[in-house]
Amino acid sequence: MRFRWTSTCALAACLSWWTTSLPAQPPENESPLAETEIVPLLDPQQDLVLPEVEVVGRLDSFPANPLPDTAAITPTGTTVAVGKTGSSVTVITGEEIQRTQQTTVAEVLRQVEGLNVVRNGGPGGITSVFIRGANSQHTKVILDGIPINDPSNAGRSFDFSTLSTQNIERIEVLRGPQSMLYGSDAIGGVINIITKRGEGPLTATALVEGGSFNSSNTSLTMSGGNDLFYHSTSLGYQGTDGVSSAQFANGNPERDGYYNGTISGRYGWTPSELLNVDYVFRYADVHAAVDDQPFGSLPVDNLIRSNLSDVFYEKIQLQSFQFDGLVEHRVAFDHTNYKRVDTDPGFLDPQYNGATKQFEYQMNLMLLEDNIFTVGTNHLNEEASNTSTPAVSQYLSGVFLQDQYQLGDRFYGTAGVRWDDHSVAGTAQTYRFTFLIDAWEIGSEFHGSIGTGFRAPSLAENLFPFGNPNLRPERSKGWDVGMTKYIFDRQGSVDVTYFRNDFQDLIAFDFNTFMLENIGTARSTGVEVVGVWGWNERTDIRSTYTFTSARDLDNDRPLQRRPKNKATLGVERQVASDATVNLYLLYVDSRFDLSGPLDSYITVNVAGAYDLAQDITLVGRIDNLFDEDYEEVPGFGTLGIGAYSGLRFVW
Fold this sequence. Notes:
- The protein is mainly β.
- Helices cover 5% and strands 54% of the residues.
- The strands form 4 sheets. It has a 22-stranded antiparallel β-barrel.
- A hairpin with a 2-residue loop joins strand 30 and strand 31.
């Protein structure tokens, strides 16, 4: 007996007149497209038509099979075509990461709309990402489903300085509150990093590169796969003398070096169409020289101080199917471990340790060809300690329900609710709804979402000395609505999205009680504009503009380090059959900072590749082409112009 999940019935009744009064199928030459905002660059060699992507229990289910470029898994936790979701999501493929030639994920993210990346000093400095004006600890970062926010730091934020682009298949950025699916910390959005999986014959790829600031970058990756096994293993090393973390112009000549050794892998076994076992891991050993910042003063050189970090993540997942693939089960266990050491002997707490362990279960049930119901649960335990504080721990358990549905060939929606119980901070309830409407007659799509988020207090905020065990979770409510318009005979598109996010119960220091309290309120509103144009067969153009007004409502002032205006421009040009050139421009407006205002700046990066032979490619890039002098944090240094080149070998 065919039936539709009851959560869609009322909505179906309201929309039935619309879906039946218009043609059920678009004109023959007009097929569903991905939203502009989620396609970083158009491929002029491919048609803009999106292939149909099966969602659950089919042979192309990820990770048993590769994830198509036109699909994403972060918006719903299942494989979904990007043109069939109302979520604001950006997908950056591995090929696009390779074209930028950037060595860190943070540098790749600078081109994404709605995001602001801030680094304290040169390479290796603490690197934060702000999504739509939210705090950096409101960005939930996951690696292949593993939550990798650091439980041992003050706010459980993630430091992107340790994460290289080595062995990464794609990055998916989901903007807006996402706690319904991802639980705590997903107030501003989610960044999902997905490790490469092997495919095809055994292939070895090696990169040797060097350049300015005595920089080097080497890596070796081995990968392959068939219907039964897939594998990918990568080893890499990055090193640079960098620049002074404390600004050189303020009398700080000492350079602060950065060194990162990373090994990562993904291995899978698919003995039948109904079973897949997947294991991923990543280990990084990082050495970053840093400087001092006395309280109330600008940073100054420290010749003996460095931050040493050992970071390890791993996950094993069992994926099985029943009833000819109509029911999918996923059971996973993941683990993270952080160890951070400050080498300055005068530092009060020189060593911090943090760890998380998580159990997850998710069931996807295909009720109809266009209706998928999901039930999920997880239990996460986190632990942290430092030199003077013994290990303390807390846990968070959650369960969620989600319905993905389609009405006719025009309306795509999701609806979901979640309940969480925190061992110290209590309970939290969140929800999320999305919609997308195809209006083929006018070459447009309308999309939107509304949802809530929460962030449980970190261990440092509630259980470390000077913490407050009575803190409640921070909360947010956010929504967005937008329109995509296709232009130039569908060779280009423009997407405009308005967003708003209201934050309550933010944790801040209360000078009346001299304790951390839930006293903060803030609001972020803005507009994201994304334009994509396949100019001709050799040239692709992508541009973005983001306006953000993020304000502290208690003090009626802007939030720190959030630019009102940010713009990017990316141009890819195939100058010959064996050569490409890419240009990336970034404009960041002036920003408010408690230590003083920060001026606007423009940086331009250029990257190119030339095939010397069938298996050898010459690569090179110039960062900060015009040697812009700028600050991201008052008193901290930034890199000037730098040139890098090398060879990539493929066997």
